[in-house]
Amino acid sequence: NTRLMAVANEKGGVGKTAMVVNLGAAMAITGKKVLIVDMDPQHNATSGLGVKVSDDMVNVYNLISEPADHSSLDAIVETSWENIHLLPSHPDLSGAEVELVEEDGRENRLKEAVADVINNYDFVIIDTPPSLSLLTINVFALAREVLVPCQTHPYAYGALEALFDTIEAVKEDINPDIAVAGIVPTFFDGRTRVGRDILDRLQSDKRYRDYTFATPIRVNTDIAASSDAGKPVVFYKKSCNGTHDYMAVAAELARRDGKK
Amino acid sequence: NTRLMAVANEKGGVGKTAMVVNLGAAMAITGKKVLIVDMDPQHNATSGLGVKVSDDMVNVYNLISEPADHSSLDAIVETSWENIHLLPSHPDLSGAEVELVEEDGRENRLKEAVADVINNYDFVIIDTPPSLSLLTINVFALAREVLVPCQTHPYAYGALEALFDTIEAVKEDINPDIAVAGIVPTFFDGRTRVGRDILDRLQSDKRYRDYTFATPIRVNTDIAASSDAGKPVVFYKKSCNGTHDYMAVAAELARRDGKK
Ligand SMILES: Nc1ncnc2c1ncn2[C@@H]1O[C@H](COP(=O)(O)OP(=O)(O)OP(=O)(O)O)[C@@H](O)[C@H]1O
Ligand SMILES: Nc1ncnc2c1ncn2[C@@H]1O[C@H](COP(=O)(O)OP(=O)(O)OP(=O)(O)O)[C@@H](O)[C@H]1O
Ligand SMILES: [Mg+2]
Ligand SMILES: [Mg+2]
């Protein structure tokens, strides 16, 4: 019954890492045991949780490049918050694409690496880099759900079509269980016409409207500031828009899961 | 005497495409003949200039994957603005990394493709995807300068070190002419503590302070709205912060070039 959720969008800077760190934390607050997996070589989710990236720690790159030598139990670390564990990233992960190009089954390396631990958690949420490369495909081979943050700006809205096509192709060729869990509008600023326009398109375009969450994540400087403190915003500042909005997304996620 | 400038930062959403489109246009306003090259498979710079991506047009992917069959003269298109030409992108570009992995000299495909046209321009500015992959390395093999947009947020600041290391490695192994032209703070909002903190770090950290431009690009919704209109902000709304700030960056770029 573990929820396996990828957070993905090829468009950069739409709030993928913010979603992983903050929704992960919001789910932990509601009592879920959460594993955060950082599959971005930029390791922002790792540092956003206050964990130092170090060459001495086993990380997700070791697991997918030398699967026989490491186990995910070695790599998973505790964070400062009880219900949140982390499988940390490392910059070396950016080499995996070219290193694994000849390997059969290279898309399933992550899935095989974490198979023995995922059942220890209620909710596994996975950060991805801003590309549709092998790392993201590895995450799609494992995940049963994809949550798509969509900045309420034109370029990010334009990226949805290719992403939905990619998920459809993964569903046919690699992982029949995968499905889009939802689209969460992010960086929403109701004072701007472009923000209202894009939110309106998400809520009316028949390709996306059934996926679009009711509560957008509003622009909120506390979200950026909390990453500097290495804390999810829900632990950084309990009474701010960011905390409110991520708790609302966690609640809507639970409601939508019930409807399936 | 053509200035060959890459705009790069592995961190997503820092304003690379906005810089290419808007600084390119600002340079055109000051009388320069400008070529914009879009090396991001998401083709945001192409659509940001109002050009439709189409399978019937020769694009930068054709040039680097089948160099014998196409010439850059076939691919370059005019835009709505006199001094601005565009070498458009295409989603197929995302396949180049794996397709070219066996090819010798794969890092020089772009450089060879445009060698015959770059001298027709005063200023060539090149957009890159949010990764340090083969596409970005192709751009670094061609460019003599790299302009680095840095969102005034912690994750973007943290990405600078790896980027500077990559540029150094390219300088030693592939292109001895490459150098960092500058760091332009972006998305600056002086009302936020995190924005002021990051700007302060850029201006005081001895690794970055000499590169950091005096005028940050401020957060300005007209910049996002202009991308919806397929126009650079300098043509979309002459009297807004975005237009002011990009014209100031163009002026500082000219001043810094004079000092070399
Ligand atoms: N709602 C928000 N309001 C203000 N700042 C935000 C918000 N969401 C995220 N941020 C900040 O904006 C920046 C971009 O967000 P983030 O890094 O989470 O995006 P991303 O999609 O993970 O980027 P990348 O494509 O590089 O992985 C970060 O500095 C983050 O802290
Ligand atoms: N100063 C600014 N103020 C407000 N919006 C901006 C600003 N600069 C860029 N934008 C908008 O923010 C979004 C992110 O910027 P942009 O797409 O240029 O970043 P990028 O670095 O090219 O992203 P990617 O990593 O996906 O290529 C876009 O919608 C863009 O129009
Ligand atoms: Mg991220
Ligand atoms: Mg871009």
Helix and strand layout, with pairings?
2 copies of one chain form a homodimer.
Chain A: E1 3-7, H1 16-29, E2 34-38, H2 44-48, H3 60-65, H4 72-75, E3 77-78, E4 84-87, H5 96-99, H6 109-114, E5 123-127, H7 134-142, E6 145-151, H8 154-158, H9 160-173, E7 179-186, H10 193-204, H11 221-228, H12 233-236, H13 241-259
Parallel strand pairs in A: 1-5, 1-6, 2-4, 2-5, 6-7
Antiparallel strand pairs in A: 3-4
Helix pairs in contact in A: 1-13
Residues 16-17, 40, 44, 127 of chain A line the site of one magnesium ion.
Uncertain parts of chain A: none
End-to-end C-alpha gap of chain A? 13 Å
Largest pleated sheet of chain A: 7 strands, mixed
The quaternary structure here is homodimer
- The total of helices of chain A stands at 13
Which pair of chains has the greatest number of interface residues, and how are they split between the two chains? A-B, 38 and 38 residues
Q: Which strand order does the major sheet of chain A show?
A: 3-4-2-5-1-6-7
Mean pLDDT of chain A: 96
Number of beta-strand segments of chain A: 7
What structural category do the secondary elements of chain A indicate? alpha/beta
Query: What is the general shape of chain A?
Result: globular
What small molecules accompany the polymer chains? adenosine-5'-triphosphate, magnesium ion
